[in-house]
């Protein structure tokens, strides 16, 4: 019985040490840059101090359909976090900043902080309406809600988000 008890204590101690190491590693991400309400960290995340949402600093990097975009977000592990998800249309629309110019999409200006890099003009959202899924376009100087068939890949990427603390 004492041997079993000692083994359990040893296992618990190792688990606590591993947990402490992992938490410390990711909790100490260093600040890289600021852009108004946005703060970029060296672990590939961007905090929106207004909404308290944490965004990936870049999208998935290529065109993607809705189902693959959802899977990408669910399996994304940026910054060492495992609780990423696909953003809602309102969360995406909240990234729009009229006075900001970001030319990350083919050298064309979109109104978004430069701390977030997109490879396409349309970003998938999680919302659904009549069998179509939300896409937010940052093209042409405004944010525009689109309802797209889930198989669409025309200029669509995905930008993972997670709730901040």
SSE sequence, one letter per element: HEEEEHHEEEEEEE
SS-based class: alpha+beta
Largest sheet: 5 strands, antiparallel
Strand tally is: 11
Task: Enumerate the strands of the largest sheet in spatial order, edge to edge or round the barrel.
Answer: 1-2-3-4-11
Head-to-tail CA distance between termini:
42 Å
Q: What sort of overall outline do the alpha carbons produce when their principal axes are compared?
A: globular
Radius of gyration: 19 Å
Mean pLDDT: 83
As for the number of domains, it is 1
Per DSSP, the total helix count is: 3
**Could you list the spans in which at least 5 consecutive residues all have pLDDT below 50?**
8-26
Tell me the helix content: 10-25%
Beta percentage is 25-35%
Blueprint (SSEs and pairs):
Elements: H1 2-27, E1 31-35, E2 38-41, E3 45-48, E4 53-56, H2 66-75, H3 89-93, E5 102-105, E6 108-110, E7 122-129, E8 132-137, E9 144-148, E10 156-157, E11 161-163
Parallel strand pairs: 7-10
Antiparallel strand pairs: 1-2, 2-3, 3-4, 4-11, 5-6, 7-8, 8-9
Give a structural overview.
This protein is an alpha+beta fold and 165 residues long. The chain has one domain. Helices cover 25% and strands 29% of the residues. It has three helices and eleven strands; from the N terminus they run H-E-E-E-E-H-H-E-E-E-E-E-E-E. The chain has helices at residues 2-27, 66-75, 89-93; strands at residues 31-35, 38-41, 45-48, 53-56, 102-105, 108-110, 122-129, 132-137, 144-148, 156-157, 161-163. Strands 1-2-3-4-11 form a five-stranded antiparallel sheet, with no helix packed on it. The chain has a four-stranded mixed sheet with strand order 9-8-7-10. Strand 2 and strand 3 form a beta hairpin. The radius of gyration is 19 Å and the shape is globular. It starts with a helix and ends with a strand. Mean pLDDT is 83; it is low at 8-26.
